[in-house]
Amino acid sequence: MDDRQFRNAMGKFATGVTVIATETDGQVHGMTANAFMSVSLDPKLIVISVKEDAKMLDRIKESNHFSVNVLSCEQQEESMIFAGQKQPEEEFQFDYLEGVPVVRNALVQLSCEVYNEHVEGDHTLFVGRVTEMELKDGDPLIFNCGKYRELKEMESVSN
Prior knowledge:
- By secondary structure, this protein is α+β, with helices and mostly antiparallel strands.
- It has one domain (15-145): Roll (Pnp Oxidase, Chain A), CATH 2.30.110.10.
- The strands form three sheets. A seven-stranded antiparallel β-sheet has the order 3-2-6-9-10-5-4. A three-stranded antiparallel β-sheet has the order 1-11-12, with no helix packed on it. A two-stranded antiparallel ribbon has the order 7-8.
- Helix content is 16%, strand content 49%.
- It starts with a helix and ends in a 9-residue tail after the last strand.
- The chain is built from three helices and twelve strands.
């Protein structure tokens, strides 16, 4: 199988869209990612996956903190900005949670400290210990087969 075929297969799995953010030397950096999952309730741990050649890799290692921001269905533009697909019209403004930059109005904002890291293939998996969380109501932004999507309720099936 070739790389494109594998990537297409993985794209069939619908995911939420997050922005990972950190701050180094007074500069905030963000990156769109869909490789995110929860791992443990006790302690509260999550995992993100960052490609080895991504600038964010060294920035997270330097700061030892990062945020995970689950985007709402109204935040496609933010996803595109941090994926490098769109230039912001003005400087992007972050909020802060426990001293870590977070995306304003995200459905979920998680402030994390690096708990562990593992190099696997061409990515580093950062295990983050969640130190604080903010939660808002709303529907998530979904990504599937290379396109942004929104949730839609289905009619229940009766037996």
